[in-house]
Design brief:
Length: 230
């Protein structure tokens, strides 16, 4: 029900794309997201950061900016003291890069440990012939360069999702290559399965990207979401 509400709100706004709004949709489907919030002033940003343990990540929130890091719209490792200044800086960068962009605010997010984690991608698009497909692969900002992905028809059962995590070239990375601690594969499999169920349940979702889904030894977190509805 909540999912339906969120999707119709987007339609009313006249947009067919969702970003951070989709975080709530993921909550409804039991897909873990990092702690955090979207705020629209520096003071509120500092308040959110104060509630989060350690440094935070801050990101510009605009329906007109799809690849945030391309314009310097993502700041990793921001200390509490720098949050307010970083807020102003992110907004002014976005404005100078794209003066007509609608800027909704800044997302303040828990920072995940990527030393111990692997950036994966879970995606979906609707094939005109076969219907919704779910994709899994190695994620992060170099996803197009690496092209290490595998596809199945959605929804997938746990066994199929598990097979997907074994299919990619980067599979050894997940299993803990070179003395690394293995990531939580069960949580990764579960996230793939839940995303596939979401797109199967809502035919209006024509495209979805979770990039990255950060997989760590302690679980997974959907860090960056992009979703297109028709
Ligand atoms: P975009 O893809 O729009 O540039 P992302 O939210 O995916 O924006 O952030 C870009 C990159 O920044 C991620 O691929 C990841 O390497 C890093 N990053 C983003 N959020 C976090 C986070 N919460 N913790 C750790 N690293 C992050
Ligand atoms: Mg991303």
């Amino acid at each position: 029900e909540r999912v339906r509400e969120i999707l119709s709100q987007v339609e009313e706004r006249g947009d067919n794309r969702l970003g951070v709004e989709a975080m709530e949709l993921f909550d409804a489907y039991g897909i873990p997201t990092p702690e955090g919030e979207v705020v629209d002033d520096p003071t509120a940003a500092a308040e959110v950061a104060a509630r989060i343990d350690g440094d935070v990540v801050m990101k510009i929130v605009s329906p007109d900016i799809l690849h945030k890091s391309d314009i310097g719209g993502v700041r990793v490792g921001v200390s509490a003291a720098d949050v307010a200044d970083t807020y102003e800086d992110l907004v002014s960068r976005a404005r100078s890069y794209q003066p007509d962009a609608r800027i909704l605010g800044v997302q303040v997010q828990e920072m995940l440990d990527l030393d111990d984690g692997v950036e994966t991608i879970v995606g979906s698009h609707r094939d005109p012939q076969f219907g919704p497909l779910v994709m899994f692969g190695l994620g992060g900002v170099f996803v197009e360069v690496l092209e290490d992905t595998t596809f199945r028809l959605a929804p997938v059962a746990a066994g199929e999702a598990e097979q997907m995590t074994a299919d990619i070239d980067a599979a050894p990375l997940l299993r803990g290559a070179r003395g690394r601690t293995p990531v939580d594969l069960d949580a990764t499999v579960d996230a793939i399965r839940r995303v596939s169920q979401l797109v199967a349940d809502f035919p209006s979702i024509v495209e979805l990207d979770v990039n990255p889904l950060v997989a760590t030894p302690d679980g997974v977190r959907a860090v960056d979401l992009r979703l297109t509805v028709d």
